[in-house]
UniProtKB/TrEMBL annotation:
Belongs to the sigma-70 factor family. ECF subfamily. Residues 80-114 are annotated as: Disordered. Residues 80-90 have a biased composition (Basic and acidic residues). InterPro entries: RNA_pol_sigma-70-like (IPR039425), RNA_pol_sigma-70_dom (IPR014284), RNA_pol_sigma70_r2 (IPR007627), RNA_pol_sigma_r2 (IPR013325), RNA_pol_sigma_r3/r4-like (IPR013324), WH-like_DNA-bd_sf (IPR036388). Pfam families: Sigma70_r2 (PF04542). The lineage of its organism: Bacteria, Bacillati, Actinomycetota, Actinomycetes, Kitasatosporales. This is Sigma-70 family RNA polymerase sigma factor. Residues 91-111 have a biased composition (Acidic residues).
Length: 190
């Protein structure tokens, strides 16, 4: 797909959009908490993919990871820009001329906290989508369908011990999302 994008094949961009638009939009929405902003980030990410397909290096990981990294960078930058504008405008929308350093420091801490939460969410998404399908399916049954390990075992056609093992391993993998920050490939240049 990257080679087709590099040749300027519009169909390749359409295929990439069909495959990854929901990922891009959901990651952007998680970071920004705003539907319109997520739409704008989605457009910007696919414009970047179209204009700079050469920035994807298959040796660094799958296309999905690269697209998630681009999305993360764009969304976090928008979040920082938005928070900086809010901080500059002050509480009533006018520029805060009295501007205390406490407000500035508090705003920076809030922003960094939001960025950290967004990075953890992106990391969790990356972990879930890159884990083996049997683990992911067990977690989906337990989380989204509220199945216990016995019901999960029956739904998957495995033993109860195997269902418990899959759930435990899946949860252990997910628990690393908070420790690691952003997924692999999130630190590269856009």
């Amino acid at each position: 797909m990257q080679q087709r994008l590099a040749r300027g094949e519009a169909a390749a961009l359409g295929e990439a959009y069909d495959r990854f638009a929901s990922l891009v939009h959901s990651l952007a929405h998680r970071v920004l908490g705003d539907e319109k902003a997520a739409d704008a980030v989605t457009r910007e990410v696919f414009a970047h993919i179209w204009e700079h397909p050469e920035t994807y290096d298959p040796k660094q990981g799958p296309l999905r990871t690269w697209i998630a990294a681009v999305t993360h960078r764009v969304a976090v930058q928008r979040l920082r820009d938005r928070e900086e504008r809010r901080r500059d405008e002050g509480p009533d929308g006018a520029e805060d001329l009295l501007g205390g350093e406490e407000d500035s420091e508090s705003g920076e801490e809030d922003l960094e906290s939001k960025v950290r939460r967004a990075s953890v969410a992106a990391r969790a998404d990356y972990i879930v989508h890159s884990m083996p399908v049997p683990l992911r399916r067990a977690l989906e049954l337990a989380y989204f369908q509220r199945r216990d390990y016995r019901q999960t075992a029956a739904d998957l056609g495995v033993t109860e011990d195997e269902a418990r093992r899959r759930l435990r391993l899946g949860l252990q993998l997910l628990s690393t999302a908070h420790d690691a920050g952003a997924p692999p490939g999130y630190g590269g240049a856009a």
